[in-house]
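idk why but the lab printer keeps eating my pages so im just putting this in chat instead. protein + pantoate:
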Amino acid sequence: MKICQEIDDWKAIKETLPKDKTLGVVMTMGALHSGHASLIKQSQKDNDYTLVSIFINPTQFNDKKDFDHYPNTWESDIQLLKSLNVDFVLSPHKEALYHDNYHYQINEKHFSHILCGRARPGHFDGVLTIVMKLLLISGATRAYFGEKDYQQYQLIKKMAEAFFVPTKIISCPTVREKTGLALSSRNLRLNNQAKEKAIRFAHIIQTHHCLTDAITQLEKENIQIDYLEEHNQRRYAAVFIDGIRLIDNFPISEIHMTQDKEPS
Ligand code: PAF
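predcted complex ->
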């Protein structure tokens, strides 16, 4: 597995890859878990080569404390990527990616201003800007994003269409624990009690058909709601548990199906 910290090193490798071979990219901020592994496996199935980027992107954190506490697990991330037989890792320095001091940004004017965008001003500007940079640097045939961040996936897909980016944007299903909790790098920060609450959060929003019932239930369990809304046949939720922000979403059709299921 070749690890590049310089963008030029990656570009030199890319030049040597046969032009008729395909490349998949999985963009991450590290703290890798089985959710990332499932994106990597999908990329390996679809492509000749897979590149994983690791970059904790400062411009998408509207809260400096959140950025400072974001887990950094470089050693175990690299071990996991090696065990998955990833071909290339790209982990550039902030100064190289933002040599323009973030003077150039991508702004979306509609969908990025609701849900996570309302709660975290500037968040999607940071996400879209770094994703555009990494799409162009990677030159990938396909890029893979998890459905846990469904709003992010939709914004990236529409951005790629708007700017005629040739990379195909592909979504992969959310990976969940047996308990129903969606895997997230932020779960690493939950203690046992907070983890129990997080499991209740996932269960409540998936099993209460009526939004107001779900809100009442979350409030009863002292789970602080950031938002709980439905758009285009999908339910989106964000909560704070012990100050840690967790998000999740479900297609409304799946909420009907699991209404009476208890968490295991
Ligand atoms: O989903 C993430 O981990 C990040 O938002 C991404 C896409 C890697 C951009 O920094």
